[in-house]
Structures are given as structure tokens and as C-alpha cells.
Amino acid sequence: MSSLTFILSVLLFQLLCTSHPCQRILTSAAAGGRWQLLQKSIGISAMHMQLLSNDRVVVFDRTDFGPSNLPLPKGKCRFDLNDTALKQDCTAHSIEYDVLSNKFRPLMVQTDVWCSSGAVTPNGDLVQTGGFNDGERKVRVFSPCSSCDWQESNNGLAARRWYSTNHILPDGRQIIVGGRKQFNYEFVPKNIAANTFDLPFLFETNDREVENNLYPFVFLNVDGNLFVFANNRAILLDYVKNKVVKRYPTIPGGDPRSYPSTGSAVLLPLKNLKASAIQAKVLVCGGAPKGSYSQATQGEFIGALKTCARIIITDPNPKWVIETMPLARVMGDMILLPNGNVLLINGAGSGSAGWEFGRNPVLNPVLYRPDNKIGTRFETHTPTKIPRMYHSTAALLRDGRVLVGGSNPHTYYNFTSVLFPTELSLEAFCPPYLEAKFNNLRPTIVGPNSMSGISYGKTLTLEMEIRGKVEEKLVWITMVAPAFNTHSFSMNQRLLVLGNDKITALGESRYNIEVRTPRSGNLAPAGFYLLFVVHQDIPSMGIWVKLQ
Asked: What is the biggest distance separating any 2 CA atoms in the chain, rounded to whole angstroms?
């Protein structure tokens, strides 16, 4: 980030801090957060979503929905003889949404990206992999620039990837795990390993004729191995040696949490990063009871799961601890907020993922406070007015809002005579920490002038401004990796609590805060992160930093 860009970012934040979007244009408001309608229609349904380091969000659905409501510019058309809906399509199935201007522009994908996966590389490019039909072995790249569009390479994958999961590795590569009828994994780029590697665990967790193991939940553990969850259980995988180094117990009750019995999961914030042994905890929430998908195909919609399961994956004898949510939820999303809390949002109260298989939309977001005592961690927030069912998405933005879009439980775009019409709108949920009454507690990052790159294991000093009384023990810095969100899972989502090593008063409500950056790529793979200062649970606007 250049000095000029940083200064403009700070000036913009100072403007927004006195008149934040969540404090100006509201569609609904209450003590438990606020909702803001951003766009009535972006022309496509937001099935996949990724925030990039230029504060723009890449959104796409699929090419075989038929024509979208957004034309491609300048007479462009896509010609694809293999497409199952349109051989010639002059409409867009992807957009770039500019958060700061609240505007969007159409993008052009060449082949079908339906139910695909992706991740952002260390240089900031979005690499998206797989999809359906002629898109199932494609690798596509989108670079963050104002005029960029999708670039596609033929057969960049060794296997068909549909309903797979991607994760960035410490060496900068992506691992792509699973997918429909794919009990293996592979890497991109293929400069080290070109082939696929068998993963029998995915075969073991495949329920016959239902699956319940697609879009596995994958997290990089602090030891460099991968935690891989599918169906109702997990393993720790040494992906270099292709060896399972630990098997975790089945979640009590044995109900599935993976697609189509879709729950969600997060790696909880990593803390105490200077310790020789760092704990890593995973939280899995919601899903559908056994048999829900099969029953839904027969018109019977079973109530969703109301439980979360939490486990310390670094423990030598790990056990799941069960917690009860205020609301049952299937197809929900879990978003890490800058202060380390978790937001559960979107989804249904019964049924399962799949065409027309969800019922009873869950309109209320729920906040989960992981550091509270068990039994006091959940808090129900203000409901939206827009059902977000199958094929909905959510993503954290730099200003602390959560962008929400999508919902299309139909084979095509369908706006009439259906229970839940195709949804083309974008809205934002404003968590309670964005309310104006907290402005005196809210930090503003005012320096340094350049954050073009930070290194591992180094001291980092930020200058901040807090107008009200500062509680030094309640100030800390967090780093958040923006995620690729689809099908109720945010791939590569990661939050590190850097803490607060030292605070120095500078006068006129300004302070320096010192922290230590993560010591290795096992804790935080290289790439772009959002850096926040948090004071009494109230976060600043984030700034982009590049860890290298």
C-alpha cells in the first residue's frame, strides 16, 4: 500500500467514523444490530463471494442458470457449446462490487463456476478452481484492478472439482480437497506436485446416495498440518507425507454437518501467539439430522440441528463439547468479527441444502462470544426481512459490516410462483459495535504512513486515536484473513489476536501500540490481512497489510 493510498484511507475512515454507513441509511434497527439495503439488484445471485485487498468484492453464481438480469458491456457475449442452458449468453454471471462507492460492474466468466471453490494468493490474486460441466477442471484468476476481468486456463486441475474446499498453505500454494466423487486432494500451482493424492477419509465419510461430506471444513493447524472435517468427524492430515496423524472422535449424536446436511465451522481466534504451545479450537454449528436430505426429497422437512460442537484440536486427548444455540439452523454462515466474536447468519430452520429443500428461514443473526462461560455465549440480534436460504453468502468488510447476498434454491433464476424467489439483492448487517454510542471508544488507526509489507516475528507499531477514556488492558490488535465464502463455509477464514505489548500516550488522544507479528506461516500464511485495533470490544476500521 502506497503512502498516498494509506493517507486517503485514513481520511476516508475519519469521515465515516463521524457518519458511518450503519449510522445513516438503515432499513431496520434495534439494540441487536442494524440492517442496511445496499443494492436491490446486482443482476446475479451471490452464490460465491470474496473480498479483495482493494476493498472490492468478487461475486459470481453459475453460467447454466440461463440469462441473468445484468448485460455484459459493449455487446460482449459468451459462446459455449457445452453449456446446458445457453450456447450464447450476453449476460454476466459475475460482478465486482466496490464497497466504498456502493457500485458494481459486470465481469465475464467463460465456463461454469457452479459450486466451485477458491482462495486469495499471497500476491492478492483470487484463484478460483473447478465448477460444473466444462468448468470442472478449470483454474481461473482474477487480479484486483479497476479494469481486470477473469482469466481462465484449460484443465489446470488433475481431477474434476465440484463442491471442493481450498486452503492456502504456508508455502503459498493452494490445496484443493475433495469434491463430488473425488476422495483425494491436489495442489495449485503444480510446480511441486502435479498429481492427486488419495484421501480414504473422504470415502469413509461418504453416506451412500446422500454424501454428507462435500465442501469439507479445512483449517491449517498451528503445527502446519490440516484439520479436515467431513460429515460428523475429523482427521489431522500431514498433506506433505499424505498421512493421517490424528483421528478425532465423532461429534456426539453422530448427526452430519457437511453438505447437503449443511452446517458451518470456524477456527476460533488464535491467541497467546508467543507461547511455545498454542491452542487451536474449532467450532462447528448447525446442520441437519440424519435422514433430512432424503426426507426433504419426499416433501418432509425435518427441523435443523440446534447444537454447536467445540473442540481443542491441539489437545492430546481432544473431546467435543456440545452447546445449544438459540435457534436451529441449516445452511447458515459463520463469520469471524474483528473483535474475535463469531456471527451466525443466513440459513433455514428445517430441511437441507438442495433444490427447494429448505423451509422456515432463520432471519435473526446470532452472536457467539467464545470467551464467555458456556451457557452465556449466544446473543440473538435484529432480524433481516430477506430470507437467505440455499446459495446465500456473507463476508466481513473492512469497516466491520458483514456483507450478505444470494439465495437461490432453484435450478434457474426464478422470481415468481415459488416459495423463496431468486434473490439478487445485497445488504449489510451492522453489528452492535458500529452504533454511534460507541464512537468515543472506537479506535482510529492514524499511522504509520505506509504498510506495504510486514515480516514474521517483528515488532509492529501503530499510532491510534481514541477520543474517550482508554482502558489499556482492554486494547488489542487483531489480524483477519478475508475468506472465500460459498455454501455456508468461509474458506481460509482466520483471525489472530496479536495482543498489546505496550501502549504509549502521545497526547491529544493519540497513542502508540506495539505488538509482535506472527512467527511463522503455520500461524498465518503469507498474504493480505485486515489489521484492526480493538478497544473494549469496539474495533477500528481495518487497514490492509501484506504479511511476507
From this structure: 68
